[in-house]
């Protein structure tokens, strides 16, 4: 039987809601990460995005809508 | 061409294969990095909206159809566009314990007691946890579960 492929679990920063792959948030330096998050948002152009304005996001990147 | 700050964006819904919403968001992002001529400003996949992702863009619908051709699991662009006002409620997720009160009868939908009915005894709003007692158990044993692991059956007095 083929070994089960373990899916890489991405984590979300609890303070800035950024979705990160490492052990610390690159933006705010926080290590307060959570695997339990929901809702996925990628902001590409925050200057022209109404969604980013509403979320008060001014940096492009991947975000979680809800982090527990 | 003169670009103003207040450019009008459109929001389109893209139908996806079930449970592939995050993969489609990543796929769309990847397609944009490959071809930056697509003016997409944000891609959103709310947890409540199953089978669709929302694309906020400066492009017309035909360009988005072109964009998702290269994205696996993305199926079609839903005809017609939606507005920011219509999707803004997805951006502020409501707490998992909203609509649950003490005395509410719920069914556990995950964990070892899956399928059991229980009555809500206590609610912890900050942790989004609820404490329930199983309906059919002889002795009352309090069980603390996550707010999204239950389905409300009966709210008691309406």
UniProtKB/TrEMBL annotation, chain A:
The gene is spt4. Pfam families: Spt4. Signal peptide: none annotated. InterPro entries: RPABC4/Spt4 (IPR029040), Spt4/RpoE2_Znf (IPR022800), Spt4_arch (IPR007178), Spt4_dom_sf (IPR038589). It comes from the Archaea. Keywords: DNA-directed RNA polymerase, Metal-binding, Transcription, Transcription regulation, Zinc. The lineage of its organism: Archaea, Methanobacteriati, Methanobacteriota, Stenosarchaea group, Methanomicrobia. Residues 10-68 form the Spt4/RpoE2 zinc finger domain. GO terms for cellular component: DNA-directed RNA polymerase complex. This is Transcription elongation factor Spt4. Coiled coil: none annotated. One of its GO terms (molecular function) is zinc ion binding.
Automatic annotation (TrEMBL), chain B:
SUPFAM superfamilies: Translation proteins SH3-like domain (SSF50104). GO terms for molecular function: translation elongation factor activity. Residues 99-126 form the KOW domain. Keywords: Elongation factor, Protein biosynthesis, Transcription, Transcription regulation. GO terms for biological process: DNA-templated transcription elongation; regulation of DNA-templated transcription. InterPro entries: KOW, NGN-domain, NGN_dom_sf, Rib_uL2_dom2, Spt5_arc, Translation_prot_SH3-like_sf. Pfam families: KOW, Spt5-NGN. Heterodimer composed of Spt4 and Spt5. Interacts with RNA polymerase (RNAP). Stimulates transcription elongation. Belongs to the SPT5 family. Belongs to the archaeal Spt5 family. This is Transcription elongation factor Spt5.
